[in-house]
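Hi there,

I know you've been waiting on this one. I reran it after we fixed the sequence typo, so this is the corrected version. Both the input and the resulting structure follow.
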Amino acid sequence: MNTASPKPFDGAVLAARYAFMPNRLRYCGGDNNCELFNYAAAARGDDGLKEILKEFETMYPYLRLIAEANKITDPFNYRVVEAYWLGNELLEKVSMRNFYRYLVDEQKLKRKFKPKVLERVWGRVADGAKPHHSWHVFNIPRRTGHYPIEHTLKTMDNCRISWGRVTSLSGGITVDYQPLELVDNKLILGSLVKKKIIPPINQSFIGQVGIGDYISIHWSWICDILSEQQKNNLEKWTRYNLNLSNLC
């Protein structure tokens, strides 16, 4: 089982790992999928990778918001990227006022949704929402990017960053995984099930996965091997944002 601390590569590489699969599916970002994969597989970040990642119209402004709130110059600082995708203490520094401004000015939500939807979103900001990826998935009802269609339970489960504990490497990678479920009109994490994850080519992408490792998953793709702290942070912020989304 992997118990390592966060990896020593830079934040742009971490962002590439999580952005790769939605980009491959043509949901967001530019036409740079091979480049994203190669950067992530080589664990090499540079200004070229950052320019590719700036084309992600949801992720990049969130990174800028988190960086600005924490007086960090580079939006691709590792801790900033980790805060958005997995969660860490940097989220706490983002004020309600700045988060609201971001949703209006950067995401332009007033142009995209009717007043009733906006009222719910603004209410969640007032209730303590923070710019974590799961908040966006659970509370913005329409996917952003090239295909702005309404979310379903299945697409929310695929789009959120989930975690799984590796139980088998036979014929692929199998994990114990809690799917997103809708019970009594509330979103919850369900009971553990076995889930097969897209394997082979991402050996070079994240390194060797072992039995007992916790991995992060985005659109059925393994993004990273998580430290215990990263897994706990991801679960903490996912549950926090589920609770917010279930408020009346």
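Quick highlight: The mean pLDDT is 87.

Best,
R. S.
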